[in-house]
Amino acid sequence: MTSDAIETATGTPAPATAGDPAAADRYAWLEDVEGDDALGWVRERNAETDGSLAASDDFAATKAGILGVLDSTDKIPEVAKVGEHYYNFWRDADQERGIWRRTTLDSYRSDDPEWEVVLDVDALNETEGENWVWHGASVLRTGPLAFRRAIVDLSRGGADADVSREFDLGALAFVDGGFHRPEAKGGISWIDEDTLFVFTDFGPGTMTPSGYPRLAKRWRRGQDLADAELVYEGASEDMYIAAFHDRTPGFERDWVSRTIAFYDDELYLLGADGELTKVDVPNSAMAGVKREWLLVELREDWTLEGGDAVGPTFDAGSLLAIRFEDFLSGSRAFEVLVEPTPTTALVGATWTASHLVVNVLDDVKNRLEVLTPPSAASGAGGTWARTPFTAAPDFGTVEVSAVDDDELDQVWMVATDYLTPTTLSLVEIGPDGASRAEQLKHQPTFFDPDGRVIEQHFAASDDGTRVPYFVVRPADLAFDGTAPTLLYGYGGFEISLTPAYSGTLGRSWISRGGVYVVANIRGGGEYGPTWHQAALKEKRHKAYQDFAAVARDLVARGITSPARLGIQGGSNGGLLTGNMLTQYPELFGAVVVQVPLLDMKRYSHLLAGASWMAEYGDPDDDEQWAFLRTFSPYHLFDAERTYPPVLFTTSTRDDRVHPGHARKMAALMLAAGKDVTYWENVEGGHGGAATNAQAAHMAALAYRFLWERLA
């Protein structure tokens, strides 16, 4: 923040600075995550919020309703096939931190499956005096100990940094003297029962500026981690280095992944002699090899060149396929599996044992297709067969994932929309590509959808761009501008927002007469990489113009009015709502800003912030800071301007987006006498909460805040 801005906001001269932005920042002390003064300030703000927003009967009822959804024993237990078992991680009222459990497919098909508890995290915490949060597990799938050993990842308080510990799936206990990766950001990949790839903090100089691993090693059983064999060392300015083993039978391979920055990746085949062979595709592309096939998803146009010849140009957003051995031999005879149109974007490609299921959005509606690769006998000239994925419903969000991509032609299919409870089906894909669905589970109906409708509209942004958005509203809406309306958005990192059922949202907002709106603004992935790139760096304002255009369109349609329109967003969406607060305050009656980025001068120096410079820009470069400051809410704040009421929430244990962003912005606005509510959870990581009870508390705060300000 500039010295002039601090003096204007606080009436107190700013301290002298010698080029350090933090030195000129009156509230830099709040960046000391667990400092006594900073935590004292947090406790005071939390006490104020508990004494006001959280003190009402309505808050208690809202929280209880949300917790009833989160703790429901009738939710769909999502499973992953591991050998003959189907594993699930589960939380409810009795298992606050959760249990890792398993069953059989026959039992899972029943209304009341029989579960065997593999690991009880609450009991583990009690035994070890810790506050572990489940981060997942990786099971060994080959060799004499196949399906009998796992690496379990556990995080203290929900932070991104975690530990990895070897677990015996037969004895249901951690392996005494087994593999143990100390707490750090990073991970592992099984090679065999006695060997792992490990990428983690190996000591000073081994982590990137973003706080992620810079080295990948091969770690053998009984070996000190420090003595593990180095397989790859990234450059000092890289973002993330990893190594992994592909255990596909008959196609076992080792790989090194080098992430230089977001949208700038290199993939290397690691030979037995340690030699690295780069998969020579554009760094902006996403490349993956499964069995004999290389798939390449393009983020930018790619023109093939060789010698004096110029080959075809493939469009950004295309999915290409070629036999991997042919590619390594120099062939570039790609087949285009998916080609984008102005209204479509590839959002997923899922392998089964014999097929590839591609998932495409068309004006933010899913369309799936089964592609069957040519057999080895057909040679390079064979083409992929195409079959419609008829098992999918006509409307709503549809996602698929492989049950076992080595052995089965089955996928899990999850279907949902804003008013229809989520269903889980097991889909069998035949040799001809035809799909047949068996519905296994359905989520309970947590609120009454009768009398509500879902619509899709399009708003015109400042430059004329057509911006889609979904509306969930009462069918008998008066269109007189009086409806309390909640507008949600994200607009970053090529992430698409599609319709999804939420019992929490339904109970707390929709069933009480509120209108819910989701804006599919630029920066997301709804129309592929070009939609995302349209709001990168100096073009970031396009995303905010899109969101403002949706807000104005809602008012123009008579759905709501500025005084009745609230907005909500988290992480990059918190940066979005922070900019709506500071740049478009006249459009909104209340603003919820969750785990946000807000100080864009300091963001790249805080935790993982350096990894996002490909998205936002480098604030230490004067030319880039010139545009970054135009969407830095902390620097756009004007003490003389009128702002709508705002709620900031974050987590002390968020080691991805620094809690200092929310703390400093709240302190700055409070000092200027603005209507600010603040809440910081002591656990939870970037998700904001480590337990269902914590999640219910934070969600209830947001809904109570919105109803008080908008109704």
* Shape summary: globular
Q: Which structural category fits the helices and strands?
A: alpha+beta
CATH architecture of the domain at 3-67 and 446-710: 3-Layer(aba) Sandwich
Q: What percent of the residues sit in helical stretches (DSSP H or I)? A: 10-25%
Q: Quick check: average pLDDT? A: 94
CATH topology of the domain at 3-67 and 446-710, which one? Rossmann fold
Gyration radius, in Å: 26 Å
Outline the biggest β-sheet.
8 strands, mixed
Let me know the number of strands: 39
Numbering strands along the chain, what is their spatial order in the largest sheet? 32-33-35-34-36-37-38-39
Low-confidence stretches: 1-20
Beta-strand share of residues: 25-35%
Discrete helix count: 15
CATH class placement of the domain at 3-67 and 446-710: Alpha Beta
Rounded to the nearest angstrom, the distance between the terminal CA atoms is: 35 Å
What's the CATH superfamily of the domain at 3-67 and 446-710, by name?
A: Alpha/Beta hydrolase fold, catalytic domain
Protein name: Prolyl oligopeptidase
EC number: 3.4.21.26
GO molecular function: oligopeptidase activity; serine-type endopeptidase activity
Region (Disordered): 1-20
